[in-house]
């Protein structure tokens, strides 16, 4: 069992930045494929960024060049650095491990 706890969400103006963190329990963190997903009201949950155990990353087209996912295996934590935020980035952001274990989500609101 892996427990995930997100933090770092909040309200920011368009063009601003936020860094989300997701801390994981357990001793298998370095073996996990980690991802950030988001869900806006009335929409499905979509992948934002993903990082493999080896550090390979992939991003949704809508966030390429603006968001960066990273992981620190010594701290059992995955991060999402979000720059140049847009109102359409407003959503609840979730982290996931192997698409099996999910955090509770953190709200990100970008005002115009």
Strand-and-helix sequence, N→C? EEEEEEEEEEE
Query: Overall pLDDT, averaged?
Result: 97
Q: Unreliable stretches, pLDDT < 50, 5 or more residues?
A: none
What level of helicity do the residues show? under 10%
**Please, how many helices?**
0
Shape: globular
Going by helix content, strand content and strand pairing, the class is: mainly beta
Through-space gap between termini: 40 Å
How big is the Rg? 13 Å
β-strand number = 11
Profile the largest sheet. 7 strands, mixed
Strand content: over 45%
Provide the fold topology.
Elements: E1 4-7, E2 10-13, E3 18-24, E4 34-39, E5 46-51, E6 57-59, E7 67-72, E8 77-82, E9 91-97, E10 101-102, E11 106-111
Parallel strand pairs: 2-11
Antiparallel strand pairs: 1-3, 3-8, 4-5, 4-9, 5-6, 7-8, 9-10, 9-11
Summarize the structure.
The protein has 112 residues and is mostly beta strands. It has no helices and 11 strands.
Key features of this structure:
globular; 0% helix; 112 residues; mainly beta; four-stranded antiparallel sheet
Please explain how this structure is put together.
The protein has 112 residues and is an all-beta fold. It is built from no helices and 11 strands. Strands 2, 4, 5, 6, 9, 10 and 11 form a 7-stranded mixed sheet that branches. It is globular and about 40 Å long. The mean pLDDT is 97.
């Amino acid at each position: 069992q892996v427990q995930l706890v997100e933090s770092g969400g909040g309200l920011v103006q368009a063009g601003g930045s936020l860094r989300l963190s997701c801390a994981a329990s357990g001793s298998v963190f370095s073996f996990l494929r980690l991802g950030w997903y988001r869900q806006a009201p009335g929409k499905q949950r979509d992948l934002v960024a993903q990082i493999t155990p080896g550090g390979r990353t992939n991003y949704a087209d809508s966030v390429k060049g603006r968001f960066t996912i990273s992981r620190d295996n010594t701290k059992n934590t995955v991060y999402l650095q979000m720059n140049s935020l847009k109102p359409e980035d407003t959503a609840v952001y979730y982290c996931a491990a192997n698409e099996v274990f999910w955090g509770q989500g953190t709200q990100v609101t970008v005002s115009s």
